[in-house]
Amino acid sequence: MKRLVILISGRGSNMAAILDAVRAGTIAASVRAVISNRADAAGLATAASRGFATSVVDHGAYRDRESFEQALGRALDALSPDLIVLAGFMRVLSPGFVQSYAGRMMNIHPSLLPAYPRLHTHRQALADGVRIHGCTVHFVTADVDHGPVVAQGAVAVRTSDDEETLAARVLLVEHRILVDAVRWFCEDRLVIEAGRVRVMDELGNEHALIVPAVNRSQLDESVRREPRHQP
Length: 231
Hints:
Blueprint: E1 2-8, H1 13-24, E2 29-36, H2 42-49, E3 54-56, H3 65-79, E4 83-86, H4 95-100, E5 105-109, H5 121-128, E6 132-139, E7 149-156, H6 163-186, E8 190-193, E9 196-199, E10 209-210, H7 216-225
Parallel strand pairs: 1-2, 1-4, 2-3, 4-5, 7-10
Antiparallel strand pairs: 5-6, 6-7, 8-9
Helix pairs in contact: 1-6
């Protein structure tokens, strides 16, 4: 059984989707801990309420990024993770740190990479007038938000959308593709070849692109309860 560690910085809705999938048996894995770089991250309480271990490596307690990463590395290595999932972890990690976990660190990003790396992705999509937006799960590399793509999910951009409504619709898809990507990793179905990810199953890579129909009541609930603003 694969060992997972999840890194968060905020409320952790993507983290919660993984934890729920582990508890339901959809993902056959052991979550060793949820670690946050912020002691006030709401996701810590969410994880604890589900019975998972949590800890904090507060970046503000260290004089520089190198010191913070050394502490984070020690915390991770003590848990011997097979996969580290960045589920809303809002710190850019150095190339050296990332290289230490090459092939076993995943990130969820709220755009269809390589479009709109970094921050304010929904704002950029609306400003550019694109008709399709979405999210990407990728392996983390030194090139921020440009690692090998595992899965992507797309949503249509509506003329009535603002950042909040578009973010809420994308977030629902994030939960789905991140759970799929982690499950595939735990089932040893992901192969990185020449910078590209191949999902091994009888249908090839067809499941790596998700274009789901969103239930209206589910969307309304997401908008009401989880408005998403990027820093």
